[in-house]
Amino acid sequence: MRSLEINAPMDLRLVEKEVTFPGAGQVRIAVEYGGICGSDLGYWKKGISGTAVMKRPFVLGHEISGRIEELGEGVTGLAVGQGVTVHPARTQGELPERLVGRENLHPHLTYFGSAAQDPHTDGAFSESITVDADQVVILPEGLSTRRAVLAEPLAVAMHAVHRAGDVAGKHVLVSGCGPVGLLVVLAARAASAARITAVDLAETARERALALDADVATDTTDGMDEQITVAFEASGAPASLDGILRNISRASTVVQVGNLPPTPVSVALGPIVSKEIDYRGTYRFVTEIEDAVALLASSDVAEQVISDEFPLDDATAAFEAAAGRGSSKVVLTF
């Protein structure tokens, strides 16, 4: 079977790998769609994603959807042909008591397509993958595998909204309207945010935010509405964070969604003290992927986050499109 491997920065390769057949308690999935994530782009551009540094080649990808192709011994509740997506995380050992409910912070966690651990964890950009049955999330009837490829990044967005606390009835801001930022708009609206302001330098990104039900889309945080009390920084750009901290109201909450560079950055942090701003990180998700699948099943507007499709043979062109201006979520078709 063909798999998409990152060999070195700017060096993607389609390689042949043996099909892995399911053992007891496992499932083999024929992959149909794979979404290119910012972490995939980071490895492709520079061999780095956040604090994870690539040391050797590995298969990319953790946003996938497809259909069950084969069941291993003892698997119940699943059937060949079912549409599914996959929770990409696995943990080993007990979770420290202080982290109960926050399995995404498990000290021994692996994630598809990640260089955070050594050896690296191969991802899911393959024509088929074999996973543990408890990683499989069944798609409700009527939810296409195309739209379901957004389940993992939407789960990330929903976890970010949970990290902000109760946003019901509040005016929130989302700065950075790439794919995850757009899905934060969707997640915040689903969590009953009363008003959503989106910020992005690109006009096309602002237009997409409005299509996903943002109330206002602008290109700057200057002149921010003083009623905004929750902000999501989804671009990973220090200048965006700086603008939020300078302009947001006192006693607000700021959630850092975008990956900031692993090196020192220039941001004026004084407002965190003088305004008593709660600045919070958010990392992947816990169980929100099941809620994400349910939201995708009820919201066809989410599909507008997908801007481009490329066949696996054109993977390099797909990554170039995902890294360029004007695109949103770029997906590979298998």
How do the strands and helices of this protein lay out in sequence?
Layout: E1 2-8, E2 11-16, E3 26-35, H1 38-46, E4 48-49, E5 52-53, E6 58-59, E7 63-71, E8 83-86, E9 89-91, E10 109-111, E11 128-132, E12 136-138, H2 145-148, H3 151-163, E13 171-175, H4 179-190, E14 195-199, H5 203-211, E15 216-218, E16 228-233, H6 238-247, E17 253-256, H7 270-274, E18 278-281, H8 288-298, E19 306-311, H9 315-323, E20 329-333
Helix pairs in contact: 3-4, 3-8
Give structural notes.
The chain has 334 residues and is α/β, with parallel strands linked by helices. The protein has two domains: 2-149 and 299-333, Quinone Oxidoreductase, Chain A, domain 1, CATH 3.90.180; 154-281, NAD(P)-binding Rossmann-like Domain (Rossmann fold), CATH 3.40.50.720. Helices cover 25% and strands 28% of the residues. It has nine helices and 20 strands. The protein has helices at residues 38-46, 145-148, 151-163, 179-190, 203-211, 238-247, 270-274, 288-298, 315-323, and strands at 2-8, 11-16, 26-35, 48-49, 52-53, 58-59, 63-71, 83-86, 89-91, 109-111, 128-132, 136-138, 171-175, 195-199, 216-218, 228-233, 253-256, 278-281, 306-311, 329-333. Strands 3, 7, 8, 11, 12, 19 and 20 form a seven-stranded mixed β-sheet that branches. It has a six-stranded parallel β-sheet with strand order 15-14-13-16-17-18, with helices on both faces. The chain has a three-stranded antiparallel β-sheet with strand order 2-1-6, covered by helices on one side. The protein starts with a strand and ends with a strand. The model has no long low-confidence stretch (mean pLDDT 96).
